[in-house]
Amino acid sequence: MKPKQTIVHLPVYQPGKPIEEVKRELGLTEVIKLASNENPFGSSPNVKAALEAEIANISLYPDGGAVQLSEAVAQSLGVATNQLIFGAGSDEVILMLARAFLVQGDETVMASHTFPQYKHNCEIEGAVSIEVPLIDGTHDLDGMLAAITDKTKIVWICNPNNPTGTMNTDAEIKAFLAKVPAHVLVVLDEAYCEYNTTGQFPNSIELIGQYRNVIALRTFSKIYGLASLRVGYGIGHPDVIRSINQVREPFNTSRFAQAAALAAVKDQDFITSCREANTAGLQYLNEQFAQLDLHAFPAHGNFIMVNVGRPAADVFNGLLRRGIIIRGGHMLGFPTSIRVTIGSREQNEKFIAALKEVLAEVAVQA
């Protein structure tokens, strides 16, 4: 059996190494994972109770329309329920967007170094991916605008950008959208938006009210701490959401995911505490990097990319031997950088201690 020709060249997504595998491979008893931008503080205490209550319904299909969750999220955001669509993580919403709007020969525009699932899903549909180089780790919106043609169907903006952590401001996004042709759908992937504290982050809800061709993606995997349950969502004009719904698989989010997300979205005090701890963690790491004379991109999510001036694979392996899992930039297009999730204070301190040891033993890149 031969697979479709649009997928034969595609790489398989490589997630961060799991804790259990590292313990087994290296004989370690303590491993800290700072590789996948998970919440080191877990999830709201209310989530556990919601999951325990849901066990009684384990034999029943979930609500295909996620009605209760839709109502809660809509109320939280100030939008209508018909402006929301849920998926098994925002990854699935990306997949559905590509399935709903792209056909063979269409073009789609994205940054050169960004979340790889945009390109992956677009090329499955036979679309041509136009990749615009970043400028200082940030989306070049003018360059992306210039790349739009009559064939362009979707533009992807990851904000804050993964893997660099950089941000395009509200003013920049507004100026960009004012020039984008109406036939082009602009996807604002805001998986890390809840961590932002700048006061300059785009108000995507307001933008969606102004532009029918804008959709924002968000997730419960990051600050809400529900990564294992796979639930994310899109917010857009009802017509756009209706089109995506037409390709959505039935029962695509589980009862447990919906119950957990419902409990999580109602506990905004937990979200506030996580945001504050993340801000403190970012400040600590930036201070430490400055003392080590290492340059990091401005970080606006719950991770930071820092240039260690050495082969990223060597630094990754050196940290791994010390029980610290990060993401090596050699896998992300940044051969002398590493991406590290902001952990708890204790985790951050252990990471810095291990990093100092590794930097002392790995030669600077010539």
CATH architecture tag of the largest domain: 3-Layer(aba) Sandwich
Q: What is the overall pLDDT average? A: 94
Oligomer: single chain
Strand element count: 13
The CATH class assignment of the largest domain is Alpha Beta
Topology as a string of helices (H) and strands (E): HEHHEHEHEHEHEHEEHHHEEHEEEH
Structure, briefly:
The chain is an alpha/beta fold and 366 residues long. Helices cover 39% and strands 15% of the residues. The protein has two domains: 117 residues, Aspartate Aminotransferase, domain 1, CATH 3.90.1150.10; 223 residues, Aspartate Aminotransferase, domain 2, CATH 3.40.640.10.
Write a structural description.
The chain has helices spanning 19-26, 45-54, 67-77, 90-101, 117-124, 141-147, 170-177, 204-210, 238-245, 255-265, 268-291, 312-321, 345-361; strands spanning 32-33, 84-87, 107-111, 128-132, 152-158, 185-189, 214-219, 232-236, 295-296, 303-307, 324-325, 327-328, 337-341. It is of the alpha/beta class and 366 residues long. It has two domains: 19-42 and 269-361, Aspartate Aminotransferase, domain 1 (Alpha-Beta Complex), CATH 3.90.1150; 45-267, Aspartate Aminotransferase, domain 2, CATH 3.40.640.10. Strand 9 (295-296) and strand 10 (303-307) form a beta hairpin. The longest helix has 24 residues, at 268-291. It is globular, with a radius of gyration of 21 Å. The N and C termini lie far apart (47 Å). 44% of the residues are buried.
